Amino acid sequence: MKSRYDLSNYPLWTALVTPFDANNQVDYNTLHSLVNEQAQANNGILLLGSTGEGLALSSAEHKCIVETVCNMQLDVPIMVAVGGMNLQDQSEWVAFCNTQPIHALLLGSPLYTKPGVVGQTQWFDTLLSATDLPCMLYNVPGRSGVSITPQVLKNLAHHKNLWALKEASGDIGVFEAFRKANPTLAIFSGDDGLMPYFAQAGAAGLVSVAANAWPKQTAEFVRRSLAGTFPNLFTTWTDAVDSLFSVANPIPVKVLMHVQGKLSTPNLRPPLTHLELPCTQAIDRANTTILSWN
Protein backbone atom coordinates (compact mmCIF):
# COMPACT_ATOMS: atom_id res chain seq x y z
CA MET A 1 0.00 0.00 0.00
CA LYS A 2 1.32 3.42 -0.94
CA SER A 3 1.13 5.92 1.93
CA ARG A 4 3.79 7.86 3.77
CA TYR A 5 1.64 7.69 6.91
CA ASP A 6 0.98 4.80 9.25
CA LEU A 7 -2.79 5.09 9.04
CA SER A 8 -3.21 3.07 12.23
CA ASN A 9 -2.03 6.20 14.04
CA TYR A 10 -5.17 8.06 12.91
CA PRO A 11 -8.23 6.65 14.68
CA LEU A 12 -10.28 9.76 13.85
CA TRP A 13 -11.07 10.97 10.34
CA THR A 14 -13.15 14.09 9.93
CA ALA A 15 -15.63 13.87 7.05
CA LEU A 16 -15.05 17.50 6.17
CA VAL A 17 -17.91 19.75 5.14
CA THR A 18 -17.55 21.80 1.96
CA PRO A 19 -18.02 25.50 2.79
CA PHE A 20 -20.01 27.71 0.42
CA ASP A 21 -20.14 31.49 0.12
CA ALA A 22 -23.22 33.70 -0.27
CA ASN A 23 -23.36 32.80 -3.97
CA ASN A 24 -23.23 29.08 -3.14
CA GLN A 25 -19.75 28.69 -4.61
CA VAL A 26 -16.98 26.85 -2.80
CA ASP A 27 -15.42 29.18 -0.21
CA TYR A 28 -11.75 28.29 -0.50
CA ASN A 29 -10.58 30.72 2.18
CA THR A 30 -12.85 29.05 4.69
CA LEU A 31 -11.80 25.64 3.40
CA HIS A 32 -8.20 26.56 4.31
CA SER A 33 -9.28 27.49 7.83
CA LEU A 34 -11.29 24.32 8.37
CA VAL A 35 -8.48 22.09 7.11
CA ASN A 36 -5.92 23.84 9.31
CA GLU A 37 -8.16 23.38 12.35
CA GLN A 38 -8.39 19.65 11.71
CA ALA A 39 -4.66 19.37 11.14
CA GLN A 40 -3.99 21.15 14.44
CA ALA A 41 -6.13 18.52 16.16
CA ASN A 42 -4.13 15.79 14.34
CA ASN A 43 -7.25 14.39 12.71
CA GLY A 44 -7.18 12.64 9.35
CA ILE A 45 -9.19 14.53 6.72
CA LEU A 46 -11.77 12.98 4.40
CA LEU A 47 -12.73 15.14 1.42
CA LEU A 48 -15.87 14.96 -0.74
CA GLY A 49 -17.81 12.41 1.25
CA SER A 50 -21.55 12.65 1.86
CA THR A 51 -20.89 15.19 4.63
CA GLY A 52 -18.82 17.13 2.09
CA GLU A 53 -21.74 17.06 -0.39
CA GLY A 54 -19.48 15.40 -2.93
CA LEU A 55 -22.32 14.33 -5.21
CA ALA A 56 -23.59 17.92 -5.45
CA LEU A 57 -20.25 19.26 -6.68
CA SER A 58 -18.97 19.38 -10.24
CA SER A 59 -15.93 17.45 -11.44
CA ALA A 60 -14.04 20.72 -11.71
CA GLU A 61 -14.89 21.55 -8.09
CA HIS A 62 -13.82 18.07 -6.99
CA LYS A 63 -10.42 18.53 -8.58
CA CYS A 64 -9.95 22.05 -7.29
CA ILE A 65 -10.82 21.07 -3.72
CA VAL A 66 -8.39 18.15 -3.74
CA GLU A 67 -5.61 20.20 -5.33
CA THR A 68 -6.19 23.07 -2.90
CA VAL A 69 -5.93 20.86 0.17
CA CYS A 70 -2.97 18.90 -1.19
CA ASN A 71 -1.11 22.14 -1.87
CA MET A 72 -1.37 23.01 1.82
CA GLN A 73 1.27 20.34 2.52
CA LEU A 74 -0.33 19.17 5.75
CA ASP A 75 1.15 16.98 8.46
CA VAL A 76 -1.95 14.74 8.55
CA PRO A 77 -3.21 12.26 5.95
CA ILE A 78 -5.84 13.08 3.33
CA MET A 79 -8.48 10.62 2.17
CA VAL A 80 -10.69 11.32 -0.85
CA ALA A 81 -14.14 9.85 -1.47
CA VAL A 82 -15.07 7.92 -4.60
CA GLY A 83 -18.83 7.68 -5.03
CA GLY A 84 -21.59 7.48 -7.61
CA MET A 85 -22.97 4.76 -9.85
CA ASN A 86 -21.02 5.18 -13.10
CA LEU A 87 -17.99 2.91 -12.94
CA GLN A 88 -16.19 4.60 -15.83
CA ASP A 89 -16.53 8.00 -14.18
CA GLN A 90 -15.34 6.69 -10.85
CA SER A 91 -12.39 4.90 -12.46
CA GLU A 92 -11.38 8.19 -14.08
CA TRP A 93 -11.69 9.93 -10.72
CA VAL A 94 -9.44 7.32 -9.13
CA ALA A 95 -6.93 7.87 -11.94
CA PHE A 96 -6.90 11.59 -11.10
CA CYS A 97 -6.50 10.87 -7.39
CA ASN A 98 -3.50 8.68 -8.20
CA THR A 99 -1.74 11.80 -9.51
CA GLN A 100 -2.23 13.72 -6.26
CA PRO A 101 -0.31 13.50 -2.96
CA ILE A 102 -3.19 11.92 -1.07
CA HIS A 103 -2.94 8.96 1.25
CA ALA A 104 -6.16 6.92 1.03
CA LEU A 105 -9.45 6.51 -0.82
CA LEU A 106 -12.98 5.96 0.48
CA LEU A 107 -14.85 3.68 -1.93
CA GLY A 108 -18.60 3.95 -1.63
CA SER A 109 -21.17 1.39 -2.72
CA PRO A 110 -22.81 2.09 -6.07
CA LEU A 111 -25.79 4.36 -5.50
CA TYR A 112 -29.43 3.65 -6.34
CA THR A 113 -28.80 0.56 -8.47
CA LYS A 114 -28.78 -1.98 -5.61
CA PRO A 115 -26.26 -4.50 -7.00
CA GLY A 116 -25.95 -7.90 -5.38
CA VAL A 117 -22.85 -9.73 -4.22
CA VAL A 118 -21.44 -10.25 -7.72
CA GLY A 119 -22.06 -6.67 -8.86
CA GLN A 120 -20.63 -5.18 -5.67
CA THR A 121 -17.58 -7.43 -5.87
CA GLN A 122 -16.94 -6.40 -9.47
CA TRP A 123 -17.42 -2.70 -8.64
CA PHE A 124 -14.98 -2.68 -5.74
CA ASP A 125 -12.55 -5.04 -7.44
CA THR A 126 -12.27 -2.66 -10.40
CA LEU A 127 -11.65 0.38 -8.20
CA LEU A 128 -9.24 -1.41 -5.86
CA SER A 129 -7.27 -2.62 -8.88
CA ALA A 130 -7.04 0.92 -10.26
CA THR A 131 -4.91 2.28 -7.40
CA ASP A 132 -2.08 1.44 -5.02
CA LEU A 133 -3.51 3.67 -2.29
CA PRO A 134 -4.96 2.17 0.90
CA CYS A 135 -8.73 1.95 0.46
CA MET A 136 -11.60 2.11 2.92
CA LEU A 137 -14.91 0.65 1.76
CA TYR A 138 -18.07 2.44 2.88
CA ASN A 139 -21.16 0.54 4.01
CA VAL A 140 -24.01 3.07 4.23
CA PRO A 141 -27.25 1.36 3.17
CA GLY A 142 -29.30 4.36 4.26
CA ARG A 143 -27.76 6.37 1.43
CA SER A 144 -26.75 3.81 -1.17
CA GLY A 145 -29.89 1.68 -0.89
CA VAL A 146 -27.94 -1.57 -0.52
CA SER A 147 -25.70 -3.12 2.13
CA ILE A 148 -22.24 -4.49 1.55
CA THR A 149 -22.39 -8.14 2.58
CA PRO A 150 -19.76 -10.11 4.49
CA GLN A 151 -19.31 -12.25 1.37
CA VAL A 152 -18.17 -9.20 -0.58
CA LEU A 153 -15.42 -8.62 1.98
CA LYS A 154 -14.37 -12.26 1.66
CA ASN A 155 -14.30 -11.95 -2.12
CA LEU A 156 -12.05 -8.89 -1.93
CA ALA A 157 -9.71 -10.13 0.80
CA HIS A 158 -6.89 -10.78 -1.70
CA HIS A 159 -6.45 -7.04 -2.34
CA LYS A 160 -3.41 -5.81 -0.41
CA ASN A 161 -4.68 -2.23 -0.50
CA LEU A 162 -8.04 -3.11 1.07
CA TRP A 163 -7.22 -1.42 4.36
CA ALA A 164 -10.47 -0.58 6.13
CA LEU A 165 -14.26 -0.42 6.19
CA LYS A 166 -16.48 2.43 7.34
CA GLU A 167 -19.54 0.78 8.86
CA ALA A 168 -22.54 3.11 8.98
CA SER A 169 -25.52 0.78 9.15
CA GLY A 170 -25.90 1.42 12.87
CA ASP A 171 -26.13 -2.32 13.57
CA ILE A 172 -23.56 -3.87 15.88
CA GLY A 173 -24.49 -7.31 14.50
CA VAL A 174 -23.42 -6.22 11.03
CA PHE A 175 -20.15 -4.96 12.50
CA GLU A 176 -19.49 -8.37 14.07
CA ALA A 177 -20.28 -10.17 10.80
CA PHE A 178 -17.77 -7.99 8.95
CA ARG A 179 -15.09 -8.72 11.55
CA LYS A 180 -15.60 -12.45 11.08
CA ALA A 181 -15.57 -12.14 7.27
CA ASN A 182 -12.26 -10.29 7.15
CA PRO A 183 -10.48 -10.34 10.54
CA THR A 184 -7.50 -8.24 9.40
CA LEU A 185 -9.65 -5.36 8.11
CA ALA A 186 -9.68 -2.16 10.18
CA ILE A 187 -13.33 -1.31 10.81
CA PHE A 188 -14.30 2.27 11.59
CA SER A 189 -17.59 3.40 13.05
CA GLY A 190 -19.51 5.67 10.71
CA ASP A 191 -21.86 6.74 13.52
CA ASP A 192 -20.46 9.23 16.05
CA GLY A 193 -22.84 8.26 18.84
CA LEU A 194 -22.15 4.53 18.55
CA MET A 195 -18.37 4.84 18.81
CA PRO A 196 -18.14 3.62 22.44
CA TYR A 197 -20.11 0.47 21.55
CA PHE A 198 -18.15 -0.14 18.34
CA ALA A 199 -14.89 0.36 20.24
CA GLN A 200 -15.87 -2.41 22.66
CA ALA A 201 -16.47 -4.64 19.64
CA GLY A 202 -13.01 -3.93 18.22
CA ALA A 203 -13.40 -0.81 16.07
CA ALA A 204 -10.21 0.87 14.87
CA GLY A 205 -11.68 4.37 15.04
CA LEU A 206 -14.34 6.77 13.82
CA VAL A 207 -15.15 8.64 10.61
CA SER A 208 -16.88 11.62 12.11
CA VAL A 209 -19.37 14.36 11.32
CA ALA A 210 -19.18 15.86 14.81
CA ALA A 211 -15.44 16.53 14.49
CA ASN A 212 -16.23 19.34 12.06
CA ALA A 213 -17.72 21.34 14.90
CA TRP A 214 -15.67 19.88 17.74
CA PRO A 215 -12.32 18.62 16.38
CA LYS A 216 -10.33 18.41 19.61
CA GLN A 217 -13.22 17.21 21.73
CA THR A 218 -14.12 14.48 19.25
CA ALA A 219 -10.49 13.32 19.14
CA GLU A 220 -10.58 12.98 22.92
CA PHE A 221 -13.93 11.18 22.71
CA VAL A 222 -12.40 8.64 20.30
CA ARG A 223 -9.32 8.23 22.48
CA ARG A 224 -11.47 7.52 25.54
CA SER A 225 -13.77 5.19 23.61
CA LEU A 226 -10.83 3.12 22.39
CA ALA A 227 -9.27 3.08 25.86
CA GLY A 228 -12.50 1.58 27.23
CA THR A 229 -11.86 2.90 30.73
CA PHE A 230 -14.18 5.92 30.78
CA PRO A 231 -17.78 5.22 31.87
CA ASN A 232 -20.83 7.09 30.61
CA LEU A 233 -19.31 8.18 27.30
CA PHE A 234 -22.43 7.10 25.45
CA THR A 235 -24.73 9.03 27.80
CA THR A 236 -22.56 12.13 27.64
CA TRP A 237 -22.46 12.32 23.86
CA THR A 238 -25.78 10.85 22.74
CA ASP A 239 -27.99 13.93 22.92
CA ALA A 240 -25.30 16.20 21.52
CA VAL A 241 -24.52 13.96 18.57
CA ASP A 242 -28.18 13.19 17.90
CA SER A 243 -28.79 16.90 17.41
CA LEU A 244 -26.51 16.75 14.36
CA PHE A 245 -28.79 14.22 12.69
CA SER A 246 -32.21 15.69 13.45
CA VAL A 247 -32.53 16.36 9.72
CA ALA A 248 -30.37 15.18 6.81
CA ASN A 249 -26.61 15.39 7.32
CA PRO A 250 -24.81 17.78 6.85
CA ILE A 251 -27.56 20.36 7.45
CA PRO A 252 -27.30 20.54 11.26
CA VAL A 253 -23.51 20.53 11.44
CA LYS A 254 -23.25 23.33 8.86
CA VAL A 255 -25.86 25.37 10.73
CA LEU A 256 -23.92 24.80 13.95
CA MET A 257 -20.60 25.75 12.34
CA HIS A 258 -22.24 28.95 11.08
CA VAL A 259 -23.40 29.69 14.64
CA GLN A 260 -19.85 28.98 15.85
CA GLY A 261 -18.44 31.41 13.28
CA LYS A 262 -16.52 28.70 11.40
CA LEU A 263 -18.65 29.10 8.26
CA SER A 264 -19.62 32.41 6.69
CA THR A 265 -22.91 30.88 5.56
CA PRO A 266 -24.81 27.67 6.43
CA ASN A 267 -25.48 27.16 2.71
CA LEU A 268 -25.82 23.73 1.15
CA ARG A 269 -26.28 22.62 -2.43
CA PRO A 270 -29.84 21.75 -3.48
CA PRO A 271 -31.82 19.71 -2.75
CA LEU A 272 -30.43 20.21 0.78
CA THR A 273 -31.09 23.51 2.54
CA HIS A 274 -30.47 24.93 6.00
CA LEU A 275 -34.11 26.05 6.03
CA GLU A 276 -34.95 22.49 7.08
CA LEU A 277 -33.60 23.42 10.53
CA PRO A 278 -35.31 26.66 11.56
CA CYS A 279 -34.70 26.14 15.30
CA THR A 280 -31.12 25.92 16.60
CA GLN A 281 -31.96 25.32 20.26
CA ALA A 282 -30.86 21.68 20.24
CA ILE A 283 -27.55 22.27 18.49
CA ASP A 284 -26.87 25.34 20.67
CA ARG A 285 -27.38 23.18 23.76
CA ALA A 286 -25.18 20.46 22.29
CA ASN A 287 -22.45 22.96 21.54
CA THR A 288 -22.43 24.21 25.10
CA THR A 289 -22.31 20.66 26.43
CA ILE A 290 -19.44 19.48 24.25
CA LEU A 291 -17.30 22.60 24.53
CA SER A 292 -17.45 22.26 28.32
CA TRP A 293 -16.86 18.49 28.25
CA ASN A 294 -13.68 17.08 29.71
TrEMBL record:
Its EC number is 4.3.3.7. It catalyses: L-aspartate 4-semialdehyde + pyruvate = (2S,4S)-4-hydroxy-2,3,4,5-tetrahydrodipicolinate + H2O + H(+). The keyword Metal-binding does not apply. Keywords: Amino-acid biosynthesis, Cytoplasm, Diaminopimelate biosynthesis, Lyase, Lysine biosynthesis, Schiff base. InterPro entries: Aldolase_TIM (IPR013785), DapA (IPR005263), DapA-like (IPR002220), Schiff_base-form_aldolases_AS (IPR020625), Schiff_base-form_aldolases_CS (IPR020624). SMART domains: DHDPS. It is found in: Cytoplasm. PROSITE patterns: DHDPS_1, DHDPS_2. It is an enzyme of class 4 (lyase). Pathway: Amino-acid biosynthesis; L-lysine biosynthesis via DAP pathway; (S)-tetrahydrodipicolinate from L-aspartate: step 3/4. The active site is at 138 (proton donor/acceptor), 166 (schiff-base intermediate with substrate). Pyruvate binds at residues 51, 207. The record marks 50, 112 as: Part of a proton relay during catalysis. Catalyzes the condensation of (S)-aspartate-beta-semialdehyde [(S)-ASA] and pyruvate to 4-hydroxy-tetrahydrodipicolinate (HTPA). PANTHER family: 4-HYDROXY-2-OXOGLUTARATE ALDOLASE, MITOCHONDRIAL (PTHR12128:SF66), DIHYDRODIPICOLINATE SYNTHASE (PTHR12128). NCBIfam families: dapA. HAMAP family: DapA. Homotetramer; dimer of dimers. Belongs to the DapA family. This is 4-hydroxy-tetrahydrodipicolinate synthase. It comes from Pseudoalteromonas aurantia 208. The gene is dapA.
